[in-house]
Specification:
The complex is a heterodimer of chains A (about 350) and B (about 350). Chain A is mostly helical and about 350 residues long. Helix content of chain A is about 70%, strand content about 0%. In chain A, about 55% of the residues are buried. The chains are: A mainly alpha (about 350), B alpha/beta (about 350).
Chain lengths: ~350, ~350
């Protein structure tokens, strides 16, 4: 047993192939969705002349920004070999509490009327706190991650409905919408932020010791521990980071929708898992890249946009949405030649 | 107390009901006219949270004892469980809002078996036994929006931001609007953005895309202002297309629900009109009819004392069709709208 994390992870994966062919397979896995994306973009251009315009590409990126941040959070956790279902509730709960402490009673707030900056910081703090509690229960108390975060999903959803009394929060301070309203080169801040987050995560995962440790832990925690990786501390840290990313994702949704409803984020986790897994993040842990996850997000964004532009009959839109995703997976399997898991 | 207010005949009937209740509960010895269970469609839309508030106020005002309302979250299975829980808690009356006309049967059967009366609010079940249905006609919502838009837009593209097409109210509003436009306004091209479970994010993403392919969009009908108002205005604002009424390039917007935020938007000229769903009247007459039904009263078709008609929509299903007025800049400050009384 070697002491380097990469070796630990490859030992864990039990791969019999040589390192170079393994690297090639990983590369292909990264790019697997690209042919499907290209097919969809060509189809889109044929269906609607508006599809390839600059405005519409901005639209696709803008509508995908929140999903991208939460998918990033989830991917990090899945790569570490764990689960977090509660991210969708964090994306609703954190911004709502941040808004409630800022808003006056007349706008359905708590009436504390704290400064806006405190509210925004509180959003991030709540995200971190939820991740910290999840991490404590899963890492320290060694409870099952699936069940813990499922319970957390329900608790936070319930606390959101309770704290807001189910009411939608309108009339928020502009800072809550800033990620969507402030633009740079015509593209909202949220898109740049998501892109930057993916870039940093991608580089750290590929080149930094810490990032490679995630793969090692997800591949085989015992081997990783033997290799000198601080498995508990890193896993716990990933949960906290994911909580913060999800709360930022929540702020992006708020800016996008222009209000916080007690439903914010509801049901989003299915789409999050879909994007991550389509993008090649293995649910077994230890496999997948940020680039792959990003292509998964973009694929879903493109399909949704395309179906709207094509004016697919509304009764059939969900069925067709599902069928296109399945088709994209098959194209990916055929073109990459690598089995998916 | 209920008994003191309702006269000797009612007392006799109430005692009978209470007797039945005693039997059903196997000897619980209280002589009250029975508790009432209320089902809520969701606790996360402004319209339904207002309805919830009115139900609690009206129950108090009319002297009806409520069990804690339960939230079915758009789920028929949760609704059936909630009703059965309420029945085992001894509920003798139930106010519920089916998600689907055809899927209400099990709730009604369970209530009938337990000897409880049922009033349906907002959606009519396909078959009885139901004491009465209190609702406004959702097809008419769509038609009202269509007429307003048709009278203000001569030609071009009009868009529906649709509610969940798996719910009868979403479908009725969609069909009412679509058929009315097709029939009366052939110069208008129709576009649609469906949403899953009335999602505001779907609405924003869909509208954003439509504005790329149809930058000269003339009008929008939102099936539910409670969930679609903010995303619609936010998207228009982001694209620089939110122009107040009267200004060049203004998109005519008709909403549906009648919540205070829509009224504000009408005053500001951001939207043009909304259909005011009578949340207050739903609660008031829902409670009133249920109380009367629990006292043994039955209802017959014909005009009511509150400007509406009771109609037999299907054999055995009576429906009090409440008016749902269209709110525009002209009447937005009218004190009779519930949104102006909060």
């Amino acid at each position: 047993m070697s002491t380097t994390p990469t070796a630990a992870s490859s030992a864990a994966l039990g791969s019999a192939r040589s390192p170079s062919s393994r690297a090639l397979a990983g590369r292909i896995r990264d790019l697997a969705l690209l042919p499907a994306l290209v097919v969809l973009v060509i189809a889109g251009a044929l269906v609607s002349p508006a599809f390839l315009t600059q405005a519409n590409i901005t639209t696709i990126l803008t509508s995908s920004a929140a999903l991208a941040l939460v998918v990033l959070a989830e991917s990090l956790i899945i790569i570490t070999g764990k689960f977090d279902l509660s991210l969708e509730s964090t994306a609703g709960f954190a911004p709502a509490i941040g808004a409630l402490v800022v808003l006056p009673v007349a706008s359905n707030g708590f009436g504390l009327e704290l400064p806006t900056i405190v509210g925004i910081l509180l959003v991030l703090a709540i995200g971190a706190l939820v991740g910290f509690v999840n991490g404590f229960l899963i890492v320290r108390l060694q409870l099952n991650a699936f069940i813990v975060t499922l319970a957390m999903l329900i608790i936070l959803r319930g606390m959101l409905v309770g704290a807001s009394k189910g009411r939608t929060l309108f009339d928020l301070p502009d800072a809550f919408y800033a990620l969507m309203i402030v633009t740079f080169l015509g593209i909202p801040l949220a898109v740049w932020l998501a892109a930057l987050a993916f870039l940093i995560a991608g580089i750290v995962l590929k080149y930094h010791r810490l990032g490679r440790a995630l793969y090692a832990i997800g591949g085989n925690p015992e081997a990783a521990r033997a290799a000198g990786i601080r498995v508990e501390r890193i896993t716990w840290g990933v949960y906290v980071l994911a909580g913060v990313l999800a709360s930022i994702g929540g702020l992006v949704i708020t800016g996008y929708v222009g209000a916080i409803s007690a439903n914010q984020g509801n049901g989003m986790i299915f789409t999050v898992f879909a994007a991550a897994v389509i993008g090649g993040i293995s649910l077994d842990g230890g496999k997948g890249t940020m680039f792959g996850a990003l292509t998964g997000v973009l694929l879903l964004g493109v399909v949704q946009n395309l179906l709207t532009l094509a004016q697919v009959p509304s009764f059939w839109i969900q069925a067709i949405y599902g069928a296109i995703i399945l088709g994209a997976l098959m194209v990916a399997r055929l073109t990459s030649g690598t089995p998916q898991n | 107390m209920t008994l003191l207010k309702s006269g000797p005949a009612a007392i006799a009937r109430a005692l009978l009901v209470a007797g039945a209740a005693t039997l059903a509960l196997g000897g619980a010895a209280s002589a009250e006219s029975g508790k009432v269970a209320v089902d809520l469609t969701t606790l996360t839309s402004p319209f339904w949270t207002s309805y919830n508030k009115y139900i609690i106020e009206e129950a108090k005002a009319q002297g009806v004892e409520l069990l804690e309302p339960f939230n079915s979250e758009f789920d028929t299975a949760k609704q059936i469980t909630g009703v059965q829980n309420a029945l085992s808690l001894g509920a003798k009356g139930i106010i519920f809002s089916p998600f689907e006309s055809a899927a209400a049967g099990n709730v009604l059967k369970a209530a009938e078996k337990a000897g409880a009366k049922v009033v349906a609010v907002d959606v009519a079940p396909d078959n009885g036994p139901v004491a009465i249905v209190v609702r406004a006609n959702n097809l008419a919502y769509g038609e009202k929006a269509c007429k307003y838009i048709g009278d203000h837009v001569k030609e071009g593209a009009v868009l529906q931001i649709m509610g969940d097409q798996a719910s009868i109210n979403g479908r009725d509003r969609g069909n009412g609007f679509r058929d009315c436009i097709t029939k009366n306004y052939p110069n208008l091209t129709q576009l649609e953005v469906p949403t899953k479970a009335w999602s505001g994010e779907d609405a924003a993403a869909g509208l954003d895309a439509i504005l790329n392919s149809n930058p000269d969009l003339k009008a929008i009908y939102m099936h539910a202002g409670g969930v679609f108002l903010a995303p619609t205005l936010q998207t228009l604002k982001r694209k620089g297309l939110l122009k107040p009424a009267g200004e060049e390039g203004h998109i005519v917007i008709v909403s549906n629900d009648g919540i205070p935020q829509e009224f504000d938007a009408i005053r500001k000229g951001e939207i043009d009109a909304t259909v005011s769903q009578p949340a207050d009247l739903y609660a008031k007459y829902g409670i009133m009819y249920l109380k009367e039904a629990m006292d043994g009263k039955t209802f017959a078709p014909g005009p009511t004392d509150h400007d509406s008609n009771i109609v037999e929509v299907r054999p055995g299903v009576l429906e009090d069709q409440l008016a749902a007025p269209l709110v525009t800049k002209e009447n937005v400050d009218d004190k009779s709208f519930w949104a102006n009384q909060l």
